[in-house]
Amino acid sequence: MAQASLPFKVGEIVEVRSFEEGYRGAWFRCKILNIYTKEEKLFYSLKYLDYDGEEIHHTQVYQQFEDGEEWLMVRPSYPPCYQEREVRKIEADQAPLVVVHGSWQVGDLVDWDRDGCFWCATVLTVKRNEPFQIELFPPPLGEGETYKALRKDVRPTLDWSPEDGWTLPSTDGRKSQSVRLVKREKGVDHVPGKEKTERAKKQKTERHTQHRTERDAQQKTEGDMQPEKGNGEIRQNIDESDSIEAAVYDLEELIVRIEWIKNMLSPDVGEGSTWKYQDYRPSSK
């Protein structure tokens, strides 16, 4: 495949995959020094950034292995990565794409930072206040060994292609539920696959709202507009849902309750009656 289909240029910092024995499945940070073709094949001259004194390495950009599949050996620098609780850092970062991860789970794919490179691995065990147990990808894609890894030394594994950019890989058809990608387009956060999730949430909210409306109408018909007994608190829709619809219904119910209280406090003197106020004069005896 020609260089024209790739976004990389001389001077750019990239990550380069290795399938050399002893380093299979590892990604290295490199700087592109030269781009050239040899025997109609595309090559990059690379300087390893985390290995001082290492000689310039010449990598064939597309390589074919024993399974016959052609692999792209170069990808862009890994995007910024945050934990879900680091909300302020995520919002402040202006990168076009941010990786956000929550609590790790068994089966998650991770890149393990060790010896100046990132090794692709699978999480085997997750125990509180203990290192992970991980297993490197099996040969020929990895070294297949088992290690203990600290949480601070792992990041989510991602795939990259010129056509789709960064994507989440899947294991047996299952994508990690611990990781999401946040893309920023014209100041708006866009999470791949989020549209389907948002539609499902909207449908659930609409069903919830309809159910609440029917139930509230029945309660009003039965005259059950008094505050609940017990701890003296009034049930609110926002206790069950943080949607705008729930807040609107709480406001409507509050208005109805205020009207109910006003009616309770107003004397029942019949229609057309009026009040006449007179000065109080104490009787003389």
Automatic annotation (TrEMBL):
Residue intervals of the Agenet domain = 6-82, 102-162
Q: InterPro entries, from UniProt?
A: Agenet-like_dom, Agenet_dom_plant
In this chain, composition skew of type Basic and acidic residues spans 182-200, 206-238
UniProt organism field? Brassica campestris (Field mustard)
Q: Region labeled Disordered — which residues?
A: 159-238
Q: What is this protein called?
A: Agenet domain-containing protein
Q: What is the organism lineage in this UniProt record?
A: Eukaryota, Viridiplantae, Streptophyta, Embryophyta, Tracheophyta
List the Pfam families. Agenet (PF05641)
Among SMART domains, the record links this protein to:
Agenet (SM00743)
Name the source's superkingdom.
Eukaryota
